[in-house]
Amino acid sequence: MATNAEIDARSKVAGGTRIVQTACPMVAACLGGSCPVYAHVKGEKVVRFEPVIPGRFCAKGAVWPERIHSKDRILYPLKRVGERGSGEWERVSWDEALESIAEKLKEIDNDHGHQTIAMFDRAGVAGQRFGQLLGSTMVSFIGAHGDSPVGAARATGWRNWTDPLGIPGAQQAPGGHAMEDLAMNSNVIIFWAANTAETEQLQMKHLIAAQERGAKLITIDPIFTTTAAMSDQWIPAKVGTDAALALAMIAIIHDKAMVDTAYMNQHTNGPFLIRQDNGQILRESDLNNQDSTGFLVWDERSQTAKPADEAGVTPTLMGGWEVNGIACRTAYQMLIDEAQTFTIEHTAEITGLPADIVYQLAIDYGTAEPGAIKKGWGIGRTYHAHHMERLMLTLAAMTGNMGRPGGGVSAISSFQAPPLNRKAAERLTDTVPQTVIDGLSLLAATTGEEVPELGKFPIKALIMAGMNWVGQWPGQAKTLREVLPNIELIVVHELVMSDAAKMADYVLPVTTPYEHEGVCMPGYYGNLIQHMPEVVPPVGESKSDFEIFRNLGMKMGWSEHFKDLNEAALLPKMWETVPGVSFDRIKEEKALVWEGFNPGATEEHPHVEWAEAQFRTPSGRLEFYAEECADLGDALPIYRERPRDLYALAGEKLPLSLVSYHSKFLPSATLNEVATFRDLMPGPYVMVNPLDAESRDIGEDDIVEIFNGLGSVILHARMSEGMRPGTIAVMQGWRRSSFIEGGMQELVSGNVTNPAHLKMKPLTGADPNAPLHDVWVDIRKVNT
Question: Domain 176-410+611-624, what fold?
Fold first, then answer.
């Protein structure tokens, strides 16, 4: 990192331009993020960004100066004066806006109860304190984005972490290997629904290094992505058939005797005896009517059922026995029995892949020694995601790749968040309880349906900070038609007029991260703690989320909890509980490596997840068998067809799969208004295979309608042989106003929660996932 003296020297050379070291805030959007940057400032305007570390920079970070000074910035508080969504506003003062909002919140609290006021869990420190004092319902967003790692969390016992108050924090996927490890050690790397080259650009260089060393890169994706183009092989399986492919691989690996039996016996619940009458794991208490809960295996030496952790026991991995009159089979035997129904030919028919491709994929991975799976977020965006995530981990365990250098299943790197002094900052009273609901439950709660956590309390007010619920969440058609009419108050903190802001009663102008002081935290693949000074003054009358909630708290009558709360005093206090790190040190060094990122790793020995095989499950093992789901038929990881009836039109099932994908430009709607990106991408389009287009008389750049039983969207069509026939795709992140008519999220159901995800939640904390990639549609040409 450059020293202050070096920056000062450069400032002089720059002829009056200030150069300030700060950070790119896109850590969660590019999964590589928190890149340190130099902001070049002339007067009160950021004119450009420059990378501090050569090569560590991407388009998303480069355009932030445009976003700071966008002509679309909201400059002062706005109050709705026409019908909701009409675009009729009047400018009001901050004092008037906050007084009116506070008055309405008190009225709703008095009439309906504090649980009927909902906030999102990205509201920041002052927002958390405000919500806790109010007793509002907090909405966790991760599952509604399709990013909740339900199956992986269940199999490994990894819990989504929460802050000390029990309010959801940044829920992450179970950790993985450092990509440097894969670069050094992997012989085969499978990108499974992962477009790493575009969405994790900082990490792709390590995987290309592995390829240059001789590793084979394989991409499994229905779209010929940039990652697929850079791989040695592209395998375009049909959308939603990945579990069938994984089961076929398991069967082939087993039949070819490529199984690491020792690992399966010692570190998985594969040898556990499963009762065939109820699907539960056989325990000692089943035999002696006592409270002992030890898991039983079949001991090869004594030929009896014994506790798995008893000294001297040699588990039998495959077989079935009767124990005290109870018919049992091992979990692994049940898995293999299921997998062997997926013959190569049958799997080829399901997945649409040639039989030899199915077979060779299993052989390549099974003989890689070691082989790695790079898991993408797309795997989780399906109704049956809990099956596929467990199957990936089972494949790694079977082949001895779990906890092995160059192996594993990696979504993001492992990291431990700095133990900030959040309690002192956020909560001063424990008198008002808070309810937490997942994002999919919010739709139900706003339309009067009963949500277990809320009972019959319907949501009557929404406060959105850092969240575009209307624009980017599933169930958009229902939100617009049924939800918003039932909401008495919607308050949105925003930079620009997003889809959520358009439907608000009050829009409050918020600052960018460069208009107030803060700290860019480590996370995902970003291992740096970085100081973010105020680079330029707030644009217009904008205020930080912190200041908005502080001032609103004062209007609510909570002066004792907010009058002395200010960011300048709070930032040092937050870091008092972090060993070896202080706010003064962060300011001085500007960027420092967080030692809790990939803990224990060195340059010579990059982090290997689960190297000690210390899983956090009830058994302490990798648990691919989830007994709590036995009554649903989901205890074993299996293949199930995607639900179609939800999307049917007039009772007719639809033929095409719609996938939304992330790109190197639009991480979400965050950068939608940036002029540079709009020049590169004038508007949204749907990619269609020429075979699907020809049968519908659709040509290049034709205006088409994508539709199903939930809604529709009208946009232009592009022909692409990089699309698997039967699948169409639209880039994620466009606002409704970008389309000719309608919106992408109209087509996605927000009304579906897999009961297996709910069964697993007490063990994982993972929210149920929205099935963003399970969408069934058709497409037709629009005559103009």
Answer: Dimethylsulfoxide Reductase; domain 2 (3.40.228)
